[in-house]
Design brief:
Blueprint lengths: L3 E3 L2 E4 L3 H12 L4 E4 L11 E4 L2 E4 L5 E2 L3 H9 L6 E5 L2 E5 L2 E4 L3 H5 L6 H15 L12 H9 L1 H16 L8 H12 L9 E5 L3 H14 L3 E3 L4 E7 L2 E6 L2 E5 L1 E4 L3 H8 L5 H9 L2 E11 L8 E4 L8 E4 L13 E9 L4 H4 L2 H15 L8 E14 L19 E3 L12 H20 L1
Parallel strand pairs: 1-14, 2-3, 2-15, 3-11, 8-17, 15-21
Antiparallel strand pairs: 4-5, 6-10, 7-10, 8-9, 12-13, 13-14, 16-19, 16-20, 17-18, 18-19
Length: 440
């Protein structure tokens, strides 16, 4: 006999959006079931073990102005677990390394003339003066950056980053996406102008687990390895069919990627609505994580402005969080956003490492394969929505096609870009909205 699970609300997805939505619901006395397809919680903030300590599968940090994340940490009484450190950022360009952590570093950035360095510095200031992002909606990031900083600045600094991040979609990206990045980074600085970033002890999954614990203490339940196959409504409410049985509730919150949501309701939703859910494109991500016996460089976040290098960034996590946290291991993330059809996306960990080693050797001549103690490969199919021009017209409402069905996903975060801070914000918002709707 098929097992039946009942609750007031079913939340699909146990990433930060789903967890914080369920946290708000459970906090207000509603019975919640969370369905998670994976065997662990956290979504893109899931973790693995290195040197006896958990670490994020995909690199993470917060800016000091990520107030929604900081607020829930404070609400849970976890402030001692929040670390704030100066960031050490740089750029690899024309076979050289350049430090770019402070305004003074920018003035010494020799690939640009002095006048172009000044233009680059003023670009960020001018971007932060934009108060209404709607004025940028119909502009591409390319056109806007060329307008603000000129062709040389765009060619050296921005074009390689856009191309490395978005590949075939680079020229379609909205100026709004870039504006938000510049605004966010510019507002996360210390008194001397240095960028400051925040991290959570034990990895971001430790915060996810703290939220999950509160949900369970309030009577909620989290069901792992339970993907939702389809969602239907009858006269009694909503039914979600899974391999673990059927879950029923009066309301449902879906936090997966929009095309995945479309698959769940394809049997009954209007063709036009399904087309809207599938209209927004996504890039996948591969993240090759290296455990090294020594450091690659002194830089935490190295933007790679070299079109031949296969990764957009070299993130040496242990130049941000000390190596002793991971039993002396030095942790390097090599990240690439790419279509899921790209051959690199399907490589296994050993093949990708072998492919990568010559590029690392060229960038870091002293590097040897023997430095690599272990390597790990993580993939995310739905990693980065393509935030194109006039993106606001593409985003579906949080209210789904029938009453009581909600969709709250990373692709709907706008004008900001996806990230844990905004996942927390939007999850709490939709949870509170449902609580309020039940009072009416």
């Amino acid at each position: 006999m098929e097992q039946l699970h009942q609750a007031d609300v079913t939340v699909i997805g146990a990433g930060f959006t789903g967890l914080t939505a369920a946290y708000e619901l459970a906090k207000h006395g509603l019975q919640v079931n969370i369905l998670e397809a994976e065997s662990v919680i956290g979504g893109l903030a899931a973790a693995f073990h290195v040197g006896g300590e958990r670490i994020d599968r995909f690199y993470h940090h917060w800016f000091t102005n990520d107030t929604d994340a900081i607020d829930i940490i404070s609400e849970l009484g976890l402030e001692p677990s929040l670390e704030i450190h100066p960031s050490n950022t740089g750029m690899y360009y024309a076979n050289q390394f350049f430090k770019l952590s402070t305004p003074w570093d920018l003035l010494k950035f020799s690939p640009l003339s002095l006048s172009d360095r000044i233009r680059l510095g003023l670009l960020t200031l001018r971007a932060r003066q934009v108060k209404d992002w709607r004025l940028l909606e119909k502009k591409s990031a390319r056109a806007w950056l060329q307008e603000l900083g000129g062709e040389n600045v765009f060619r050296v600094v921005w074009q390689p980053l856009l191309q490395g991040k978005f590949g075939p979609y680079a020229d379609e990206i909205s100026a709004v996406w870039m504006w938000n990045k510049l605004k966010l980074r510019g507002g996360s600085r210390g008194k001397k102008g240095e960028e400051q970033l925040a991290y959570f002890q034990g990895g971001f999954v430790a915060l996810a687990e703290a939220i999950a614990q509160k949900i369970c203490q309030s009577g909620g339940q989290i069901h792992l390895s339970t993907p939702a196959h389809n969602i239907e409504k009858d006269e009694h409410g909503w039914k979600i069919n899974t391999v673990q049985g059927q879950y029923t509730s009066q309301q449902v919150v879906v936090t997966t990627a929009l095309p995945q949501f479309a698959d769940m309701i394809e049997s009954w939703a209007l063709t036009s609505y399904l087309a809207q859910l599938r209209r927004i494109h996504y890039l996948g991500n591969i993240c090759l994580v290296l455990e090294l016996d020594r450091s690659l460089s002194s830089t935490y976040w190295l933007n790679v402005n070299d079109p031949d290098f296969p990764f957009v960034g070299v993130i040496e996590h242990t130049n941000f969080i000390k190596p002793s946290t991971y039993n002396g291991r030095h942790i390097v993330y090599l990240s690439k956003y790419l279509p899921h059809t790209d051959p690199l996306y399907t490589m296994d960990a050993d093949t990708l490492l072998a492919y990568t080693l010559p590029f690392l050797k060229k960038m870091f001549p002293a590097f040897e394969k023997s430095w690599v103690l272990k390597h790990h490969l993580w993939r995310a199919r739905w990693s980065q929505p393509i935030v194109e021009q006039s993106y606001s017209a593409l985003i579906p409402s949080y209210q789904g096609p029938k009453d009581g069905l909600y969709v709250c996903s990373m692709a709907q975060i706008y004008p900001e870009d996806r990230g844990t801070n905004y996942a927390i914000r939007e999850g709490r918002k939709i949870g509170r909205q449902i609580v309020q709707s039940r009072k009416v």
